[in-house]
Amino acid sequence: MKFRCFFSGLFLVCALHSEAQAWDFDHISFKKADSLAMVNKGASLDDLPKLVYNLTNGLETDAERFRSIYLWVCTNVKNDYGLYAKNKRKRRRFQDDSLKLEAWNDRFKKRIFKTLLKRKRTICTGYAYMVKTLSQLANIDCEIINGFAKTSSGNPEDLRYPNHSWNAVKLNDKWYLSDPTWSSGVQDIDNGRFKFDYNDGLFLAPPKLFAINHFPLEAQWFLFNDTPPIFTGFLEAPIVYNEAYKLLAGHKTPQKLYNEVPRNYTLNLECLLKPNIKLKTITLEIDDGISSKIIVPDNFVLKNQKLFVKHILKNYGFYDIHLSINDQLVASYVFKVRRFSEE
After folding, report:
1. Domain boundary residue among 177, 205, 237?
2. Half-sphere exposure of 207 toward its Cβ, with a 13 Å CA cutoff?
3. CA distances for 94 relative to 83, 88, 89, 109, 205, angstroms
4. What whole-number distance in Å separates Cα of residue 337 and Cα of residue 317?
5. What is the pLDDT of residue 298?
6. 198 lies in the same domain as 305
7. Are residues 277 and 225 in the same domain?
8. For the packed helices 48-56 and 124-137, what is the interaxial angle rounded to 10 degrees?
9. What is the pLDDT of residue 108?
10. pLDDT (tens digit, 9 = 90+) per residue, 120-144?
């Protein structure tokens, strides 16, 4: 997943009149597209045009065709953590020798695609490349976006260089963002092996939510009309977990992971939920290092899918604060309550 990618090209981004996200296609049923992806499960990569035909034949819209391609890639290509780990070690070893680093990158690119085509195993570059290649064979505009990505378990050292790739796809004259690597599954903590676990929340994800964990090298690929984030803001942003993409449509505050505040500070948490989420499924856990307590939903306000949480931090010390929905961890923040307020 964390690999500097070298497949960027020249491209144009259409003018954005509104931010593109998955619910633009709520009027379309993806049932047939999903069925085609499942029917072709296990298909080889020996004949890509044939694969694309089998995945898209009979589908009426580009959105359906892209859906079938994306779902197939995410449920048939494994994330190769061994390949990723080796690349990470080599890149660190050669980080101060540009010639050796370039030579390694050239060799590694060839290995990525050999492993992808023969074993259907890859890292982020291969996922993004495969989604783009299959989409283009279906006459759908799709680009590989290179940049930085951070995870809840990531090391800040991994963000010294671009470390991730994802896709932008053009549907109905608007560009949308998707991350097939993070959609595909997770590493099994018991044995270290990859386990398929499709996350639909990263299919045509909301751009501002996507930007909390993704920072493209080219600013136009943020795909929203506001002023693009700065890199320091990206580094300081709260932890937003993969499950958040299934449950949130946006996240507003707090804007930082680490926050230093005076005593009796009122924590304000605000985010936009996806439809049909009930208030009773939402909890906030506050851990001061000695004990933790759960704030019950009665303390929350949910209006027009906007969630508002206010909580006074009365005592000095450090607090780990975790937002959960449907028993799934969504976001985390750290607050230090100062002993003396700065007045």
Report:
1. 237
2. 23
3. 17, 10, 9, 16, 35
4. 5
5. 79
6. no
7. no
8. 70
9. 58
10. 888 888 999 999 999 999 999 999 9
pLDDT for res 96? 61
Listed residues 191, 216, 237: the one ending a domain: 237
> In angstroms, rounded to a whole number, what is the distance separating the alpha carbons of residues 6 and 170?
21
Residue 5 domain flag:
no
Closest CA to 173 of 201, 210, 141, 205: 141
> What pLDDT sits at residue 287?
92
- At 167, the amino acid letter reads N
Tell me if 125 sits within 8 A of 165, measured CB to CB: yes
Residues 88 and 211 in one domain: yes
- Contact criterion met (CB below 8 Å) for 286 and 292: yes
State pTM to two decimals: 0.87
The CA radius of gyration of the chain, in Å to the nearest whole number, is 21
Cis before 254 (ω within 30): yes
Domain shared by 289 and 156, yes or no: no
CA 313 to chain centre: 31
The predicted pLDDT at position 259 comes to 96
- Tell me how long the chain is: 343
Sequence-ordered alpha helix ranges (H) in 237-338: 244-247
Q: What integer pLDDT is reported at residue 109 of this predicted model?
A: 61
User: Do 30 and 154 fall within a single domain?
Assistant: yes
Q: Which residues of the chain have pLDDT under 70?
A: 1-20, 81-113, 115, 119, 154-157, 189, 340-343
Start-to-end CA span in the chain (Å): 45
Cβ atoms within 10 Å, residue 114: 10
And the tokens for 128? Answer: 């993004």
The answer to the question of residue 8 being in a domain is no
